[in-house]
Amino acid sequence: MAITATQQITDTRYRTAVKWISDAAANTGVTILNVSDLVGHQTGGLVNIAKIYWTSSAPSGGLDIIWDGGSASNVTAFICEGTSGTYGYMPGQPAISNNSLTAGTDAGDVLITNASATFTLVIEFHKVPDAQGNGWHAGLNLA
User: Under CATH, what is the fold of the domain 3-128?
Assistant: First the structure.
């Protein structure tokens, strides 16, 4: 795996933010967020992507942020192109919903695929319940 450092910046009852740093190696379907490891996770818990910040050595094809489809196909959520950029910091930019909603033990996790490159990536995720209100324990007394 080419992710050389991971820092969980925050993990509260409604959001989490994580920073990853990578060396010059490529990644192919590497898990960068396991939703079941987050505070308050229950079966069915998903996240959406609220904000993204990146700097990179501009890998060919960009940094592909991918929803893990579990037993079905993975779905590309966002492609970070160029040497730097942001998403979600300007008014009107909506959160990116997980549209790989399928059954599977890994469904809801977030993966990354990229050609050889160095990068720093910071993503803020918001925890969202399923249509029945399941997925995150609301009784937690956390910030």
Answer: Jelly Rolls (2.60.120)
The answer to whether the Cα torsion of 86, 92, 93, 98 is positive or negative is positive
Extents of the domains making up the chain: 3-128
User: For the segment 26-38, what is each residue's pLDDT rounded down to a tens digit?
Assistant: 999 999 999 989 9
Report yes or no: 140 and 40 within 8 Å, Cβ to Cβ. Answer: yes
Q: At CB < 8 A and 24+ separation, what contacts does 85-91 make?
A: 85/52, 85/53, 85/54, 86/51, 86/52, 86/53, 86/54, 87/49, 87/51, 87/52, 88/49, 88/50, 88/51, 88/52, 88/124, 89/51, 89/53
| Residue carrying structure tokens 């720093």 | 120
Segments of the chain with pLDDT less than 50: 141-143
